[in-house]
Design a protein that fits this description.
By secondary structure, this protein is mainly alpha-helical. It contains four helices and two strands, in the order αααββα. It has a two-stranded antiparallel sheet. The longest helix has 18 residues. It is globular, with a radius of gyration of 15 Å. It starts with 8 loop residues before the first helix and ends with a helix.
């Protein structure tokens, strides 16, 4: 039997933030994070509240679209986590 590893919330947050380095639509982010839309929205709300990502409006003629992009605070968090993870796993 294959042993499966459940991702922690921290791992999910970091994975989503890493995918937001370039502006990304919520559907693509949902697929990249392997999450349902309902769960993704919950994570997005928390990350926006804490200032790790921002929503950018990229409306065209008749359709309103929103993309998500990481902030400097989010980049710092990713960098600090990666540095910590490298030290701990050695």
């Amino acid at each position: 039997m294959i042993e499966r590893h459940r991702r922690s919330r921290a791992e999910i947050y970091l994975e989503l933030m890493k995918n937001c380095i370039e502006p990304i639509l919520p559907t693509k982010l949902m697929y990249a994070g392997n999450l349902s839309y309902k769960v993704l929205k919950q994570y997005l709300v928390k990350m926006i509240e804490h200032g790790y990502i921002v929503a950018v409006d990229v409306s065209n003629d008749c359709r309103s679209k929103c993309k998500y992009v990481i902030t400097a605070k989010g980049l710092t968090l990713i960098h600090d986590y990666d540095a910590w993870h490298t030290r701990v796993s050695v």
